[in-house]
Amino acid sequence: MKYVELGTTGQEVSLVALGCLSLTPSAKERSIATVHRAYELGITLYDTADIYGDGESEKLLGEAIREGNIPREKVVIASKCAALRYENVYTWNLSADYIKECCEKSLKRLGMEYIDLYQPHRIDYLAHPEETARALEDLKTEGKIRHVGVSNYSPDEIRAISAYTRVEALQTLFHLLIQEPLEIGLAAVCLEKKMNMLCYSPLAGGLLTGNKPLPHTFDQGYGDWQEQREQGVVAQVKIVAERYGVTPGQISLAWLMALPGGVIPLVGTGNPDHIEEGAKAADITLARDDWYELSIIGRGRRMRWRGRPYVYLKDR
Asked: In the chain, what are the domains?
């Protein structure tokens, strides 16, 4: 496993993290085994949230760490706050009182005295970033959290809250098929602010593993053309993966980790075998030409540079 600094904290975290959304009571033994296997593989960063399984993910993560006799100081626990459930619909509340209430409940579920990285889950347009930041700073002063991150924030929203508190990481949707962080400046602002990007759904919900059947039902505006595109992408990713003797999923994770600034894929799984495969991706050194080839494959078009199409060398 390789390691990078978490923001400017001086604390190292594994370049591959375990996303804990899939830790569920219905598969408790396997979920706990997944956490234990991740730690054995050198994974030190574990990401959960108060709304994952209505708090069950946090409970299982804490239980797994205790049962495995994993030293608390050897792992970095990340969780998220702000979700407010109302008649089966989630809204977002980043008022100071609600953030503190969420933190207390998360600590109780985790069975821990502090959370290493605490992240507002989504922006709350009714909360001033100064109020949100003040609550997070209070929690730091009280020793209940160590560091602040944000999740699903835009570049401007990152800059707004950064005026009031130090933000160490951004969690965002990012994979070969969705390269928005590169296109709208999220990656650039993370480099500017010395923040890590934590990428959720780095394998597009399993699609980029090449093992998952493509969907046959689609949202509005999503049809057969998209299925054909995804089939083509997966087929081409497999070709690149074969050059390295690795799986399509591993090469897709390596594509993310090749970016500068410590980009960390959150491998979301409750299966020990899957986290083992994901952890091995940290050992892949992706050639520059292959990185750009994969990027073009995922975008479905040539990249642009200063208004001109990027010409991939192998096209010549």
From this structure: 3-214+250-285 (3.20.20.100)
Task: Say what the pLDDT of residue 221 is.
Answer: 47
Question: pLDDT, tens digit, for every residue of 136-151?
Answer: 999 999 999 999 999 9
47 bridge partner residues: 19, 78
CA neighbor of 161 nearest in space, from 125, 185, 191: 125
pTM of the model: 0.90
Q: What is the CA radius of gyration of the chain?
A: 19
d(CA 204, CA 312): 24
Question: What would the pLDDT profile of 206-256 be if each residue is shown by its tens digit?
Answer: 999 988 665 544 444 444 445 556 778 889 999 999 999 999 999 999 999
CB contact at 8 A, 53 and 28? no
The pLDDT score that the predictor gives to residue 226 is 55
Distance CA 189, CA 156 (A): 9
- Nearest-angstrom CA–CA distance, 88 and 90: 7
Q: Which residue has the tokens 């500017």?
A: 192
Strand partners, 198: 171, 264
Q: DSSP string covering 94-140, please?
A: --HHHHHHHHHHHHHHHT-S-EEEEEESS--TTS-HHHHHHHHHHHH
Report CA-CA distances (Å) from 65 to 42, 218, 228. 14, 39, 43
Share of the chain above pLDDT 70, in %: 89
Burial degree of 34 (CB within 10 A; 0-12, 13-18, 19+): buried
CA distance readout (Å), 223 to 201, 217, 218:
21, 8, 6
Total residue count of the chain as it appears in this document: 316
| Chain segment 74-112, per-residue pLDDT in tens | 999 999 999 887 777 778 999 999 999 999 999 999 999
pLDDT number for residue 222 = 45
Tokens of 78: 């990340």
